[in-house]
Amino acid sequence: MSGSDHTSASCRTARPGTGGRIWVVGLIMAFEGHPDLEIAHEGDWSDYKHQRNFRVRKGHQLRGDKLDLEYLKWYELNRPVFDKVKDDAKLSDLSFQVGIPGDLDMTMFTMGPTRMLGKREPFSEATVRDITQIHAAAGGDVVFQLELPAETVFVAKAGPLGGVVAGKLAAGINRLVKASPAGARFGIHLCLGDLGHKALSGLSSARPLVRFANAIADGWPAGRTLEYVHAPLAAGDEPPSVDPAFYAPLTGLELPAGTRFVAGFLHEERTIQEQRKLLDVIEAAVGHEVDVAASCGLGRRTPEAGFATMDQARALCEKPPDSTLATLG
Q1: Among residues 136, 28, 11, 31, which one has the least CA distance to residue 75?
Q2: pLDDT for residue 117
Q3: Rounded distance, CA 148 to CA 309, Å?
Q4: What is the tally of helices (H) and strands (E) in the chain?
Q5: What is the model's pTM?
């Protein structure tokens, strides 16, 4: 069965691939040839403990104009494929989604947490450069998805200081957005990590996600559209909680009018009956209809797992028969 058999007109954006690259891993591994960087910690990125990190070579300076993060390259490579799929499927409203790792994330995962201080600016400059060039080529047809696992995990682990940490990190994200072209469209992908289908952190409730989403929305720059905020309600191989109390903090979600909330709770370890009940709980807490998604991208999953999740999404977007409703417990 082809991937197209699992899609429907409910799809809002489509994100083509990046040549088999595992999120930022391929790019970071390729920095081995960068003239201003050298390997500080060897690793193959087989898991979070085996990261390859870099440092700036002695006597060198890392500059944004010498960093190619390849977002423009992959956009230009995939654009003809996207246009053909869009035309063949007659999805005139479908937008091209460009995944943009947060500049703090690129800094931390490239340099490592002990060498990242003072190194964010080059990654910010390189990120904004590619966003600007893609926006100039595509205009309103592209949504830039900012992907923020480091920030999300920092907020999740901050405990009672989560509100303060969320505000500080949101300010950095919004600086990046403000430096991007007026009229650009963005989505926010809060993320707990999914390398090897393992999360960097779990959650005891949705509260950290609400804090972080509200902080980003509160300082969102004028002239740039916040299309959606995606929140991970599962964590890697851990399926979403079936306890309604986990979702209760969603009552405090405060997003701008017109910004969609994407509930990332789809998971192959939950039945469609459980998922339908969870959707009812989530929408009751949020106070309106939400979009549905997995907790993270499907490109690293097996085709079977990816298609199972896509089938869940499609089923939830269709009206269920009364006989399929079930209670959680």
Answers
A1: 136
A2: 87
A3: 22
A4: 10, 9
A5: 0.91
